[in-house]
Design brief:
The chain has helices spanning 78-83, 121-134, 191-204, 216-230, 258-278, and strands at residues 7-13, 16-24, 64-69, 72-76, 91-99, 108-116, 136-144, 147-156, 159-165. The protein is α+β, with helices and mostly antiparallel strands. It has a domain at 1-29 and 66-74 and 82-171 and 257-275 and 287-308: Ku70, Chain: A, Domain 2 (Beta Barrel). It has five helices and nine strands; from the N terminus they run E-E-E-E-H-E-E-H-E-E-E-H-H-H. Residues 243-255 and 282-308 have low confidence and may be disordered. The radius of gyration is 26 Å and the shape is extended.
C-alpha cells in the first residue's frame, strides 16, 4: 500500500531549503479491545459526566480550565486557546548540529520518514551523506497539527528520519530513586563478578534482528479468536465512522543552485563569527562542541496546557 504524506514542507539550514514529505514510520499492531454492551452488542464509548453529580453534561456546557493552585482554576475560551497556538509553518528549521551520540534515548518519542520533494533528490542526498560522514544529527523545531515539537534529524540507510523529541521539562529526574552508586567498586562489585557478567554478555551477543521478537500475547489472543470464529461464535456490531489522519498544507519549495547556497551560508556564518570576535567580551564564551538544545519556555504555572 502506497504511503500517504502526512505533512509537506522543507528542511531549512543556512540558506538551503530541501522540499520534503513526512511519512509515518511506525504502525500499531497491538490488540485493541472494544467495549460492547453485552445486552445489545452496541459499541460503548466514553461519556461526559459531572464527577460530582454523576449527571451527563452537554458539550455546550463544557469549558476548559487550567489548574492554577489547589481548587483554583483559570477558564480559557476556545478563541484564547486558538490564539496561543504556535504559528503554523511548513519548515523543519535546523537550529544546530550535534554529535550523534549526544542525545539520550529517553528523549526519543516518535519517528517519521522524510522523503525528498520535487527536484530535491541531490540536495537531500547531500545532507544525508554529510551527516553520515560527520557523525552529526540536526536539532530542529517543527509545527505539526498546531503543536510545536523539538525534533532530531537523523540519517538512516538511504533516507532521513525525523524523530520527535520530548521536551526537557517532560523528562523526570531519577534523583529520588534509590540507585546503586556509579562505578563497579563503589557499587561493591568484585572483579570475579564483573568478569563473569562480561562473559555472559559476550556469550549472548548477536546481531540486531527485530523479526526475532514477536508479540506472543497478540498471537495467543488471535489464535483464541480464530478458534471462536471456527465455532461460529460471532457477534454483529455496527461501528461509528472515524476521521482520518492529519495532513499538512501542501506547499512547494523552489531549489536554486546548491553550491551557491552553501557558499553564501558559509560566508554568512563567517561574517557573523567576525562580528562576534569584534564585540567587547563582557562574558567568557561557552566551550565549543557542546551546543545547547533550545527548550520550550516554561509555563507560568505548573499545569500543562492541553489542546482540544
Amino acid at each position: 500500500m502506497t504511503s500517504r504524506a502526512l505533512w509537506k514542507g522543507a528542511i531549512s539550514f543556512g540558506l538551503v531549503h530541501i522540499p520534503v514529505a513526512l511519512h509515518s514510520a511506525t504502525t500499531n499492531s497491538g490488540l485493541d479491545f472494544d467495549w460492547l454492551d453485552k445486552r445489545s452488542m452496541d459499541p460503548v464509548g466514553y461519556k461526559r459526566i459531572n464527577k460530582k453529580t454523576g449527571k451527563d453534561i452537554t458539550p455546550e456546557n463544557i469549558v476548559k480550565g487550567i489548574k492554577y493552585s489547589d481548587g483554583q482554576y483559570v477558564v480559557l475560551s476556545e478563541e484564547e486557546i486558538t490564539a496561543a497556538y504556535p504559528q503554523a509553518t511548513q519548515t523543519i528549521e535546523i537550529e544546530c548540529f550535534v554529535a550523534n551520540t549526544d542525545i539520550p534515548f529517553i528523549y526519543l518519542e516518535r519517528p517519521y520518514y522524510l522523503a525528498p520533494g520535487n527536484k530535491a533528490a541531490k540536495v537531500y542526498a547531500l545532507l544525508r551523506d554529510t551527516l553520515l560522514e560527520t557523525r552529526q544529527v540536526g536539532i530542529a523545531r517543527v509545527v505539526i497539527q498546531t503543536k510545536q515539537h523539538m525534533a532530531l534529524l537523523v540519517p538512516s540507510g538511504a533516507g532521513l528520519v525525523l524523530n520527535l523529541l520530548r521536551w526537557g521539562e517532560n523528562i523526570r529526574s531519577w534523583q529520588d530513586l534509590d540507585l546503586p552508586p556509579e562505578g563497579a567498586k563503589a557499587a561493591g562489585l568484585s572483579d570475579r563478578e564483573l568478569s563473569m557478567a562480561k562473559q555472559l554478555v559476550k556469550d549472548m551477543a548477536g546481531k540486531w534482528d527485530p523479526h526475532r521478537f514477536i508479540d506472543s500475547f497478540k498471537d495467543e489472543i488471535m489464535a483464541l479468536v480464530e478458534r471462536k470464529v471456527n465455532k461460529g461464535k460471532l457477534q454483529t456490531v455496527v461501528q461509528p465512522s472515524e476521521s482520518g489522519e492529519f495532513s499538512g498544507i501542501s506547499q512547494g519549495a523552489q531549489v536554486i543552485d546548491l553550491t551557491d547556497l552553501l557558499k553564501r551560508s558559509l560566508r554568512a556564518g563567517g561574517a557573523q563569527a567576525n562580528a562576534r570576535n569584534n564585540e567587547p567580551k563582557a562574558k567568557p564564551e561557552a566551550k565549543p562542541g557542546k551546543p545547547k538544545i533550545a527548550k520550550k519556555a516554561a509555563p507560568r504555572t505548573t499545569a500543562k496546557r492541553r489542546a482540544a
